[in-house]
């Protein structure tokens, strides 16, 4: 997402998008942990992790593009570390959250449940934000919104019957659906064979989740 022009004000589109994603994450955590005695502490850790992510992502511009920053320091307001900055920020934020949340003894099912709500919500909002930014919706965007909306509805309807249950199967099908939808993306850039980078990442995560689920099932059976 590029910059957003509001009259004479120019906003960093990606910054606005990530702030909205952060708000979604906060709402998801607040909703899913509302009966957990450690809710306030975990919400504090999650807020700190998001703040760390934002600071590292924006600040990575200084590390990755030092010459540009020295020549024009104000460029930090409009630019960031790009994809490399996002990966660096994600690694540091996840490491911080993992270190802090170990004391809360939250199970993998809680992480899976919360993560699936968050990712589905972000995936639903992204094409909507693209449309607000002025990009014409394509078939892929429309179907992506439909697929994500369907999963949010399923998560909402099953929130009581499978509260913090094993959501691995849901996550795998959600990822597979978006792998297939990516073939309809008009600007899909091939990365490996006939798959884009996003498709490869989704396939890798889905495969890892399937292997992890089989491993857990085998251990439970002894």
Walkthrough of the structure:
The protein has 222 residues and is mainly α. The protein contains eight helices and four strands, in the order E-E-H-H-H-H-H-H-H-E-E-H. The protein has helices at 13-32, 39-64, 66-71, 82-101, 108-132, 139-157, 168-181, 197-221; strands spanning 4-6, 9-11, 190-192, 195-196. The strands form two sheets. It has a two-stranded antiparallel sheet. It has a two-stranded antiparallel sheet with strand order 3-4. It is globular. The mean pLDDT is 81.
Topology:
Blueprint: E1 4-6, E2 9-11, H1 13-32, H2 39-64, H3 66-71, H4 82-101, H5 108-132, H6 139-157, H7 168-181, E3 190-192, E4 195-196, H8 197-221
Antiparallel strand pairs: 1-2, 3-4
Helix pairs in contact: 1-2, 1-5, 2-4, 5-6, 5-7, 6-7, 7-8
By secondary-structure content and strand pairing, the structural class works out as mainly alpha
Q: Name the shape in a single word.
A: globular
Content of β-strand: under 5%
Largest sheet: 2 strands, antiparallel
Report the C-alpha radius of gyration, rounded: 19 Å
Distance between the termini: 49 Å
What is the ordering of alpha helices and beta strands? EEHHHHHHHEEH
What percentage of residues falls in helices of 4 or more residues? 55-70%
Q: Got a strand count?
A: 4
Mean pLDDT: 81
Strand line-up across the major sheet:
1-2
Q: Runs with pLDDT <50, length 5+?
A: none
Number of helices: 8
Structure keywords:
222 residues; mainly alpha; two-stranded antiparallel sheet; two-stranded antiparallel ribbon; 4 strands
């Amino acid at each position: 997402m590029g910059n957003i022009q509001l009259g004479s004000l120019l906003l960093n589109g990606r910054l606005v998008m990530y702030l909205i994603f952060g708000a979604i994450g906060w709402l998801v955590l607040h909703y899913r942990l509302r009966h957990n005695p450690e809710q306030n502490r975990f919400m504090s850790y999650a807020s700190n992790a998001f703040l760390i992510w934002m600071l590292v992502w924006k600040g990575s511009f200084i590390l990755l593009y030092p010459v540009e920053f020295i020549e024009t320091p104000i460029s930090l307001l409009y630019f960031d570390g790009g994809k490399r900055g996002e990966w660096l920020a994600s690694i540091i934020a996840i490491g911080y959250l993992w270190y802090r949340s170990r004391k809360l003894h939250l199970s993998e099912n809680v992480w899976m449940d919360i993560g699936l709500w968050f990712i589905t919500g972000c995936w639903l909002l992204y094409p909507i934000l693209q449309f607000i930014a002025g990009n014409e919706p394509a078939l892929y965007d429309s179907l992506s919104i439909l697929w994500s909306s369907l999963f949010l509805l399923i998560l909402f309807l099953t929130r009581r019957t499978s509260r913090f249950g094993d959501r691995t199967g849901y996550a795998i099908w959600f990822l597979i659906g978006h792998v297939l939808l990516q073939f309809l993306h008009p600007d899909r850039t091939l990365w490996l064979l006939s798959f884009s980078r996003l498709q490869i990442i989704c396939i890798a995560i889905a495969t890892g989740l399937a292997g992890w689920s089989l491993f857990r099932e085998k251990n439970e059976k002894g």
